[in-house]
Write a structure and sequence with these properties.
By secondary structure, the protein is mostly beta strands. The protein is built from one helix and 13 strands; from the N terminus they run βββαββββββββββ. The strands form four sheets. Strands 3-6-5-4-7 form a five-stranded antiparallel sheet, with helices on one face.
Length: about 200
């Protein structure tokens, strides 16, 4: 008997003298002898929020930058590193997440199949982008916008393109210049050209 893959054997399901059957095209009649688990490399499945779609597009365009680092709860020391190798073709509408997978070399067998780990995806840098507080970005039927404070202390309603949102900050790829001030509270009471003062 030749194993189809290399890996670690689990529990043996038969003993010497047991009657076993082969599939002959019908998997329901097959007697499994043993389970073989591939140990190297391992595949780590995880999900990312829909808001990280821009990051995922960037990783698919530059897979060599998609470094993945694994850690355990309460310990920041890396226990494994690999690369992103799969992103699902659709968003799970129930959870608002995207299924993703990383391939992790495991030659020293330090990781175990079924083990729970924390996953950190390193996306590299996003040059020529302006970061603003996420609360400054407002939705509209025409897309996201911010109120930009002009030198005369009036506001301009400015459409923007959000490349990535991470917690309290959003990266703006179009619509803002470095150094421009934006309104972060009270936007519902404003309109284009309204006067404001810094609080």
């Amino acid at each position: 008997i030749t194993a189809p893959i290399s890996g670690r054997l689990g529990a043996v399901n038969v003993s010497v003298g047991d009657l076993v059957t082969t599939s002959n095209g019908n998997s329901s009649s097959t007697t499994p002898l043993v389970t073989i688990t591939q140990m190297d490399p391992l595949q780590v499945n995880f999900t990312l929020p829909e808001s990280d779609l821009a990051l995922l597009h960037k990783e698919l365009a530059n897979p060599q930058q998609g470094d993945v680092t694994l850690t355990k709860d309460g310990d920041p020391k890396p226990i494994g590193k690999g690369t992103l190798d799969f992103v699902d073709s659709s968003v799970d509408t129930a959870s608002g997440t995207i299924a993703t997978r990383a391939s992790i070399p495991n030659g020293d067998l330090s990781l175990w199949p079924g083990q729970y780990v924390n996953v950190m995806l390193e996306a590299g840098t996003m040059p020529q982008m302006t970061s603003v507080p996420t609360v400054a970005v407002q939705p509209s039927q025409k897309g996201p916008f911010v109120y930009v404070v002009k030198p005369d202390n009036t506001v301009e309603m400015r459409p923007v393109q959000v490349a990535l949102t991470e917690g309290e900050n959003s990266a703006i790829s179009q619509g803002l210049k470095n150094g421009e001030k934006v309104v972060v509270e009270g936007q519902t009471r404003l309109k284009d050209g309204a006067a404001v003062h810094e609080g």
